[in-house]
């Protein structure tokens, strides 16, 4: 059974830091691009960041550039999202998701929360972890 499990969420103060983890079970991540998405109450799910299957390509939403960092470990079982200097507007449920990626697109990732974009479709989702930014 293919599963993604997020952890690391919680309450964090503005200007603090938090690291989210996304662990795969039932499969390895080396053939997948991984995305982090978030959904705040009353809002659509939106892309935060993604990392290509090789780790050589990353993308960030404009709102988090320079503050969040995505990475993946060498064993290809865990992907991280480091949240630095979070803001109250970063409060949301954070989800990780996996999109099967061809070797030709090994350095590419696309943040698409719904459907298929440029050949990327996030078919496997975790259950989410709550991040609350508040003083």
Radius of gyration: 14 Å
Low-confidence stretches: none
Main beta sheet strand tally, sense and closure: 7 strands, mixed
Order of helices and strands: EEEEEEEEEEE
How would you name the oligomeric state of the polypeptide chains in this document?
Answer: single chain
Alpha carbon gap, first and last residue: 40 Å
Strand content: over 45%
Number of helices: 0
The coarse silhouette is globular
Number of strands: 11
Mean pLDDT: 94
Helix content: under 10%
Structural class given helices, strands, pairing? mainly beta
Structure in words:
The chain is an all-beta fold and 135 residues long. It has no helices and eleven strands. The strands form two sheets. Strands 2, 4, 5, 6, 9, 10 and 11 form a seven-stranded mixed sheet that branches. A four-stranded antiparallel sheet has the order 1-3-8-7, with no helix packed on it. Strand 4 and strand 5 form a beta hairpin. It is globular, with a radius of gyration of 14 Å.
């Amino acid at each position: 059974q293919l599963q993604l499990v997020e952890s690391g969420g919680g309450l964090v103060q503005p200007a603090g830091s938090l690291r989210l983890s996304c662990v795969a079970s039932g499969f390895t991540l080396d053939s997948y691009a991984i995305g982090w998405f978030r959904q705040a109450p009353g809002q659509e799910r939106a892309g935060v960041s993604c990392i290509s299957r090789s780790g050589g390509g990353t993308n960030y939403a404009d709102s988090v550039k320079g503050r969040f960092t995505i990475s993946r470990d060498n064993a290809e079982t865990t992907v991280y999202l480091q949240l630095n200097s979070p803001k109250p507007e970063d409060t949301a449920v954070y989800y990780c998701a996996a999109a099967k990626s061809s070797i030709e697109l090994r350095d590419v990732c696309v943040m698409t929360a719904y459907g298929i974009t440029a050949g990327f479709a996030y078919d496997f989702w975790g259950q989410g972890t709550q991040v609350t930014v508040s003083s």
